[in-house]
Amino acid sequence: MSLELYITFLLAATIIIIVPGPNVTLIIATSVLNGARAGLMTVAGTSLAQIVQITLVILGLSWLVERYGTIFELIRWAGALWLIWLGFKTWRDAAKPLPEASPRQNNLRKGLLIGLANPKSLTFFAAFFPQFIDPGQPAAPQFALLAASYLILATFFDSCYALAGGAGQKRLASGLPRLILGRSAGALLVGGGLWLASPGAIQKN
After folding, report:
1. CA proximity to 87, closest of 45, 33, 44
2. What is the extent of the structural domain holding 59?
3. Domain-located, residue 48
4. Using CB atoms within 10 A as the burial measure, which of 23, 44, 82, 125 is most buried?
5. What total of structural domains would you count in the chain?
6. What does the pLDDT look like over 124-164, one tens digit per residue?
7. How many other C-beta atoms can be found within 10 angstroms of the C-beta atom of residue 13?
8. What are the tens digits of pLDDT across the range 2-24?
9. Residue 202: inside a domain, yes or no?
10. Residues 107/42, Cβ–Cβ less than 8 Å
């Protein structure tokens, strides 16, 4: 793989990653309501999900999602319903007193489930990575480099979202600001679920 091709991949991946999708929506909402630490644990969960999905692509299992539409639809709808439920819960809890910080494993689990529940990641990775593979060189090392680079970029930018959301958490976690933020986060989560349910949605981080 040439340096120019690799740089092109990094630029394309960065653009895709920084555009908010279901993962980023959950990370921001968690950070604003429960602090940066909770948001970072959510990032750990979404990153683990992406590792699992990229591994599945490497093993050649993405064909299952592409070939059997029923399985794709079931997983997609399960992920959409989960995200919508989280949105309604966040909306409802915005009017309640600030709860204790969620256990770290709960935020990790939420991030992992949301990431795994988006099957479009499988087809996205399978379609995106091969565009940057040089057919004149061994594919496996190139694929490993692209996968590692994508995961590093995704974790970095997702962590930035978590830290930014957590920075205003103490100032914005009570009274009217909390109500507004909670309701806004809930609406974003519901919107993310509806987006995930949309047949024409394009996979984003």
Report:
1. 33
2. 3-197
3. yes
4. 23
5. 1
6. 777 677 777 777 787 778 888 888 999 999 999 999 988 88
7. 22
8. 788 888 889 888 877 776 667 77
9. no
10. yes
